[in-house]
Design goal:
This protein is an alpha/beta fold. It is globular and about 45 Å long. Helix 3 runs parallel beside helix 4. The chain has four helices and three strands; from the N terminus they run H-E-H-E-H-E-H. Helix content is 29%, strand content 9%. It has a three-stranded parallel sheet with strand order 1-2-3, with helices on one face.
Length: 169
C-alpha cells in the first residue's frame, strides 16, 4: 500500500486496485482517502493464492471456500498442484459468488469515494459465462466500468513463477 501511494505521489501511477477481503484493506482505505486523486478499482477476489497470507470472504459462501473457510488458492486446477485447490473443482454456486461480489463492491464503495472500475482477481470470470456476465451486470449496477468492455485486457504470464508455475496476480 505504501509503495503504491509513493508511486502515485511521484507521478508513476494514476490508478490502482484494492482487494476488499485482503488483510490490508483498511490500511489501503486510509491511504486512498488521503490521496483522492488516485483512481481506484475494486479487484474482485474469489481466490487467495499466497501460502502464508490468506483471506476469507466477507459473507457466508460455503461453496467457494476450502475446509478452513479461506478462498481456494487457484481458479483452475493446475498440473503439479494438489487436487481440490481450485474453485473450479469445488461445487461453486452462482448465488454464493453473487453474494460475495456484492459485499465486496458495497464495502469498497462505502469506504473509497474514487472507486471507478472492477477487475477480477486471477481471471476468475473464466469459471463460466454466467460468472463473467454476473461481474459485468454487478459492475454496471454499482456504476463501475469493466476495463475489458473498453478493450483493455489482462497481460498473461507476467507473474508466473518458474519454480511452480503459479500465477501470483
Amino acid at each position: 500500500n505504501a509503495g503504491t501511494i509513493e508511486a502515485y505521489r511521484k507521478g508513476v501511477v494514476t490508478s490502482t486496485d484494492v482487494i476488499v477481503p485482503g488483510p490490508w484493506f483498511l490500511d489501503a482505505v486510509k491511504l486512498l482517502n488521503e490521496n483522492p486523486g488516485l483512481d481506484v478499482g475494486v479487484h474482485l477476489a474469489l481466490t487467495s493464492e499466497w501460502e502464508n497470507v490468506k483471506w476469507r470472504p466477507l459473507t457466508f459462501v460455503p461453496s467457494i471456500v476450502d475446509s478452513d473457510g479461506y478462498f481456494f488458492p487457484m481458479v483452475q486446477p493446475r498440473p503439479g498442484f494438489p487436487a481440490n485447490t481450485s474453485i473450479k473443482e469445488s461445487t461453486w454456486r452462482i448465488d454464493d459468488i453473487e453474494r460475495e461480489l456484492r459485499a465486496q463492491l458495497a464495502t469498497a464503495k462505502r469506504h473509497i469515494p474514487q472507486v471507478t472500475y472492477t477487475w477480477n482477481h486471477m481471471g476468475f470470470t473464466s469459471l463460466s459465462t454466467d460468472v463473467a456476465d454476473l461481474v459485468l451486470r454487478l459492475s454496471k449496477e454499482y456504476g463501475l466500468v469493466v476495463p475489458s468492455e473498453l478493450g483493455l485486457q489482462r497481460v498473461s504470464g507476467v507473474y508466473e513463477s518458474r519454480d511452480s508455475g503459479a500465477v501470483k496476480a
